[in-house]
Amino acid sequence: MKIILFTDTIGDLNGVSRFLQDMAELSLDRGDDLCIVTSTNKYCPGAENIYNFTPRFCIPMPFYKELDLAFPCRSIMEDFVNENKPDLIHISTPGPVGLAGRSIAKKLGIPMLGTYHTDFPAYIRDNTGLKVLKKLTDRWMRYFYRPFVHVFSRSEIYGDIMQKDIGISFDKISYIRPGTNLERFSSRHIKEGVWASYGVRESSVKVLYVGRMTKEKNIPFLLDVWALLKESYPQLNAELIMVGEGNQQERALEMRSIGVHCLGPVVGEELSIIYASSDLFVFPSVTDTLGQVVMESAASALPIIVSTVGGPKSLINLHPRSGYALDIVVRTWVEQISLLVENKELRSALGESGQSHMQAFSIENSYEDFIGVHKDYCNGTRG
Questions:
Q1: Same domain (yes/no): 163, 249
Q2: By Cβ atoms counted within 10 A, which residue in 55, 58, 99, 374 is the most buried?
Q3: Range of 256's domain?
Q4: Are residues 212 and 147 in the same domain?
């Protein structure tokens, strides 16, 4: 069986990129014939089964200028597909590269599968405040996914949304068990002295956020929470560590006097160290289908606070508890963060529970679900 996967993101600081890099690495280890096709002028991992075709041109992504929309040369990609003769094509993202892959698959009559990684209609609504644009984006997504024989959901919660909002029938949806790299993300990576190089006090409690610093990730809300936290508890020995970049970064930089630190994009071993050396993870997004960073933080033994909306809440262990899913109410988040900052024993208990819980969330489980459905379609036992 040969699979060609098309994606618009592979080297960026986001959960989709890390998931795909893990899939590429595991396919090489297992001897499965999966290759990933992308088009970018930015960093691209050098794995032998990742192919980067130079874009014809790029434009900044609307609402997130730090990411590019790279428009590939479709004919070159079609030549690549014809040369490699895949049994299946997988479309990971509905951007220009994903559209090219979709067009090629339709032209050549190759069955298509996909993964619903990102809730783009909610993304558009939250960035514009216009519900009508969400409805239009829902219609676009219905059109985009209509010819797919199968679409994966990264969390069980989003299966219902995929059926209701974008019209994917129940029999075309399956759930990929969530997973992360438990070697790469672990409390074993804690490192003394790491904070000095970032200008962060060693003695403070580190409240960590990792991801895009944008409106659809609810960063304005998180910064409002932090401002009220510092106003309400001025003696609280805590600092907010933000890893990533985006259009809310300027406001965050202006809050350095109240303990906000913007580290920019951090990847590789340094990111593993940042996770393990922090004390608490906060993730207020209401548009994530899963939340790869939530699994990474829990695997690193951090207690977590997430919103009650979307996939991340499904990652919290309840018996014993590993974190909290809270309504998007500023005062509620302020009180919970202050409680955890002041209670080291509670943080430790929650972190240990989360790390133990994550041992069942190996990335190998995700890979088995991902590759297994493809094999079923290839063998004719599904569809």
A1: no
A2: 374
A3: 187-358
A4: no
- Here the CATH number for the domain that contains residue 221 is 3.40.50.2000
**Tokens 């997430």 identify what position?**
306
Q: Would the CA dihedral through 223, 227, 228, 232 be positive or negative?
A: positive
Residue 117: per-residue pLDDT: 83
CA angle at residue 26 from 272 to 373, to 5 degrees?
A: 120
Question: Which residue is associated with the tokens 């009180």?
Answer: 335
Task: Provide DSSP, 173-214.
Answer: EEEPPP-B-TTTSSGGG--TTGGGGGT--TTSEEEEEES--S
Please tell me the predicted confidence (pLDDT) of residue 2.
97
pLDDT in tens, 88-123: 999 999 999 999 999 999 999 999 999 988 766 676
Residue pair 280/337 in contact by the 8 Å Cβ criterion: yes
Question: Are 240 and 322 within one domain?
Answer: yes
Q: Are 166 and 227 contained in the same domain?
A: no
pLDDT digits (tens, 9 = 90+) for 236-264: 999 999 999 988 999 999 999 999 999 99
**Alpha-helical runs (H) found in 87-238:** 96-108, 120-128, 131-145, 157-166, 219-232
- Statement to judge: residues 136 and 92 lie in one domain: yes
What is this structure's pTM? Answer: 0.86
- Scored b (16 or more CB within 10 A) or e, 101-133 reads bbebbeeeebbbbbbbbbbbbbbbbbbeeeeee
Q: State residue 115 phi and psi, 5-degree precision.
A: -125, 130
